[in-house]
Specification:
By secondary structure, the chain is mostly beta strands. It folds into 3 domains: about 80 residues, no CATH class; about 35 residues, Low-density Lipoprotein Receptor (Irregular); about 60 residues, Low-density Lipoprotein Receptor. It contains 1 helix and 12 strands. The strands form 6 sheets. Strands 1-2 form a two-stranded antiparallel ribbon. The protein has a two-stranded antiparallel ribbon with strand order 3-4. It has a two-stranded antiparallel ribbon with strand order 5-6. The N terminus is likely disordered.
Length: about 200
């Protein structure tokens, strides 16, 4: 620090680092100019999400949509999460993700098909919230599923939740009994603090 005429003048040294930005994840889109990472469903949604002077998110659709988790809009090619299909609140500008898409496949063993054709995760069936449009068929007694004991725990009301959710500190069953039981792990699982995790992931889940 130097003093001159009663004013303090600071000598500041600037160091410039060559910073390499981390690549965008599989579930993100990398903007061409700004290098910003945005969600895949923000591409071709009629909004410039990449920032000023970067329209790369609206110039062209993604090369491909993830077949197990996304649906491609017929008009502009936008990839929308499959959870929004047949939800009666459409994301596609042309509404092609709504209106009862015939033959849209739900993932067997992982999802439940609503009468409208919407696919929801099995864990949302009889969870206390109506996820199916027009009456909430997922909350009706006849919709109760047969739980897969190798990967699911059955709540008293019939809800099937992933076995990893048991004793995780959160009440996933309506009566909370998933937080007060002693789990017996399967041969393909490991015991970690009263919880069961797949053996291939270990206690980290």
């Amino acid at each position: 620090m130097f003093h001159r005429d009663g004013f303090a003048v600071f000598a500041i040294s600037l160091m410039i680092y060559d910073v390499t930005e981390a690549p965008c994840s599989r579930d993100e889109f990398e903007c061409a100019k700004s290098r910003k990472c945005i969600k895949r469903d923000q591409v071709r949604n009629k909004l410039w999400n990449c920032g000023a002077n970067d329209t790369s998110d609206e110039d062209k659709p993604l090369a491909r949509c993830h077949p197990r988790s996304e649906f491609r809009c017929r008009g502009n090619g936008m990839c929308v999460p499959r959870d929004w299909i047949n939800r009666e609140v459409y994301l596609c500008a042309d509404g092609s993700d709504d209106g009862g898409i015939r033959g849209f496949p739900c993932i067997q063993g992982d999802e439940f098909r609503c009468p409208t054709g919407r696919c929801i995760p099995r864990s949302k069936v009889v969870d206390g919230f109506k996820d199916c449009p027009h009456g909430g068929a997922d909350e009706m007694a006849e919709s109760i599923l047969q739980c897969d004991v190798t990967k699911e725990y059955r709540c008293a009301n019939g809800r099937c939740i992933p076995r990893e959710w048991v004793n995780n500190g959160l009440r996933d069953c309506v009566d909370g009994n998933d937080e007060s039981i002693l789990m017996t792990c399967n041969d393909n699982e490991v015991t970690c603090g009263g919880r069961c995790f797949p053996r291939y992931t270990g206690c980290g889940g």
